[in-house]
Design brief:
Layout lengths: L6 E2 L11 E2 L1 H13 L4 E4 L3 H8 L10 E5 L4 E10 L4 H20 L3 E12 L5 H10 L1
Parallel strand pairs: 5-6
Antiparallel strand pairs: 1-2, 3-5, 4-5
Helix pairs in contact: 1-3
Organism: Salipaludibacillus keqinensis
InterPro entries: Asp23 (IPR005531)
Family: Belongs to the asp23 family.
Length: 138
């Protein structure tokens, strides 16, 4: 992992100074890009990120995203729960493509890899009120 915990945008320093991006910002961008894909139920973080989110110390948009700053670029891991009935390989490929494209457009950072971990499947819950309405209409 990088020692300074931020990504420098340009190697040459201009007269205006330098631009650095925090890994937390990259996590948020990647999290939003992943959640935009149809078939993604939600992102899944670990216990520590859930506690930090409840205490207000971390945004929910970066939950389920881990960024590793390397010398050559970024390695990103995304933990998702997909919706029931979707083609998981297609959804994962779309997640990877959207994250890479979004980070390229917004930050011009080279992404080495985007690893998508499917940790669950979300089933839609039927509401009892919906089923009783249908029974009453018939």
């Amino acid at each position: 992992m990088s020692e300074n915990n931020s990504v420098q945008m340009f190697e040459d320093h201009s007269q205006f100074g330098k631009v650095e991006i925090s890994p937390e910002v990259i996590e948020i961008i990647a999290g939003i890009a992943a959640s935009e894909i149809d078939g993604v139920g939600m992102l899944r973080g670990n216990f520590a990120s859930g506690v930090a989110e409840r205490l207000g110390r971390k945004s929910s948009h970066g939950k389920g995203v881990k960024v590793d700053l390397g010398d050559n670029g970024l390695k990103i891991e995304v933990y998702v729960i997909t919706n029931y009935g979707v083609a998981i390989p297609e959804v994962c490929k779309k997640i990877q493509e959207n994250i890479v494209q979004t980070l390229k457009n917004m930050t011009a950072i080279h992404v080495l890899s985007v690893d998508v971990h499917v940790v669950g499947v979300h089933f839609e819950e039927k509401n009892e009120s919906d089923s009783t309405k249908k029974d009453q209409e018939v």
